[in-house]
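Lab notebook, bench 4. The sequencing result for the construct came back, and we need a structural model before the next group meeting so we can plan mutations. Quick request posted to the team channel:

Model the 3D structure of this chain.
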Amino acid sequence: MILLKGIPYIPGTPFTNNEGIQFPGNWYNLASPEERTKQGFDEVPDPQPIDERFYYINTDGSIEEKPLDQCKYFVLNQLANIRWSKENKGIIYSSANALFQTDSSSRVNYLGVLEKVKTNPNYSTVWKAREPDNSASKFVIINANDIIAIYQSGIQYISDCFANEETLNISINTANTLNNLISIDLESGWPSNIY
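Done. Here's the predicted structure in token form:
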């Protein structure tokens, strides 16, 4: 950020110095660093944007921390949304080179086909899955062993997602300052979805 006598300056803008001399808008771009300093210009790092999840910006421009409990509530909700997104990401079952969904309705479907396997260990079926990069749909043939493995892996993956949410939840709830809360990485510790 460029400051002129402590006030933000936009290059290309005409200005008047302390002696009342007017300078054209292109002066700054043509001047040497020494000439700029002599006229009161200073380059400073851009200010960090204010994260309005954690701070109030008052009408006078001052910044004030929000109450820690209010910030924790927001972060806990954000964490729950991240966990939900991870939980529903699906698992990549390497043997079929396919991504199998882990959303609620897919879990019910897996339970239904698992019942078939219990009564017929030679059972196989065609299942609609996705390419591992989660783009295109594809049909795969899965047998009883695949069905059991996909079901168990999916349940393990979902369980691991909830376990990580619990760990992060504890960190959030035990944070005793706003800086401690802000430093918690909500993207850390999530399980791999490859089985």
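DSSP finds six helices and eleven strands in the chain.
Will bring this to the meeting.
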